[in-house]
Amino acid sequence: MRTSCPGMSYLFATLTNVLFVVLVLGMPIIMMNMLVGLAVGDIDKIQQNALMDRYVLQVQLLLDIENSMPMFILKHIQVHGYRVSEPSQITQNKVGGCARVVW
């Protein structure tokens, strides 16, 4: 056992060395796990933003197509109103027992 001063010894030298080795080997594993968890959270946010951007681009594309069409074609395909109705009945789906809406 080496000491800085002659005649002086460390208390619990073996335990100290074991704890140091555990710390040196364990900390990189813990840090990598924390970084992976951080990256997964960022990926979820990026996917949500990408989905919203996709919807925006689809709407812009439809508006551009509609604006580029001649008026006589738009008169024939124009929607004058929407009808929203409740489902008439709900039946059991035979595959898996999940509910399926029948319109």
UniProtKB/TrEMBL annotation:
InterPro entries: TRP_cation_channel (IPR052076). One of its GO terms (molecular function) is transmembrane transporter activity. One of its GO terms (cellular component) is transmembrane transporter complex. GO terms for biological process: monoatomic ion transmembrane transport. It comes from the Eukaryota. Keywords: ANK repeat, Glycoprotein, Ion channel, Ion transport, Membrane, Repeat, Transmembrane, Transmembrane helix, Transport. The chain crosses the membrane at residues 18-40. This is Ion transport domain-containing protein. It comes from Desmophyllum pertusum.
